[in-house]
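Box 3.1 A note on notation
Throughout this textbook, protein chains are presented in two layers. The first layer is the amino acid sequence; the second is a token string describing backbone geometry. Keep the layers aligned when reading.
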Amino acid sequence: MSEEEIKKEFGILKPDLEAWGKFVDQTIKNIIHNYRYGKIQIFPKYRLKNEQSFINKALYRGKGYDDPLVQIEDKVGTRVVVLVTDIVDRVSNDLKTYDQWNIKESKTKHEIFEEVPDKFGYQSIHYIVTPKDNCCNFASGSFRLKQLTCEIQVRTLLQHAYAEISHDNVYKGPYKNDPVILRQLAKSMALMEAADDYFCKTLEQVSAPQNKENMLLEHLVKVFMEIRGLDEPPAFDRNLAEEILSLVADEHISKDDIDVFLKSNPDIVDAIRYGKSVIIQQPIIILLAYCLDKIPYSLEKWDIDLDVYDDVCRSLGYAPNR
């Protein structure tokens, strides 16, 4: 294909690529929707390869593509960054079992090791997904389905930091054969692999099912996202949340207790949905509302200015009780 032919065909394909990228992003967000807060560090946001970059890769890098619109598989790309490799494994398994796309690893770990052996085995995982028939409103059996490829990268925060430093600065720059720099990178990779192992063990302990505070906070985040129509967990003050949780540690509040309370108090749900104050825009407000309604005495030890406490009560429709 000539440059003009590729430019024309790529331009025709771009709207479908955009639609496929949006679909992949939303699907990943749906898949990780119930993950515990904090395990996902960077949520997916697709990017479409620009025309110049696509033409350069198709014609001028010695790849020898017969059909670049099919063979170049990172025309659209997206990425999920998580805390540790245990979560990479969970995301990967969930991606593989989704039934609306075809999925394959773009490169196996063995292939990556053969290309860059100094990176050891601590690698991000890259998948290529294409839509199945009748997926995402594309015509069934369309010849374009095989052209609609999206690369999904799943990596840890440490892998992401390594990639940001090494990808353009070293492996694609003038220092890619510098033995001193490559050795420094290799040592950093070994340290990251060890650190990840310790992080996985630490998270396994602090996230144990018997940790009822973690379970309740996770549920509060999930319910809060549903109430406010959020696709991603909101940023919130973890110290504040833990302080409130500690005040009710002996009250044995269950997830069902929270659900029943909200179902029977639609005015509270509306106050949380539309509230503008900083504290109402945090998941812990659900627990505060429950306490004000059911066990107000539990908040007596909350170290907060009385006027501020009164404002919180009024914003939820309760008369101040301290």
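The chain has a mean pLDDT of 84. The longest strand covers residues 76-82.
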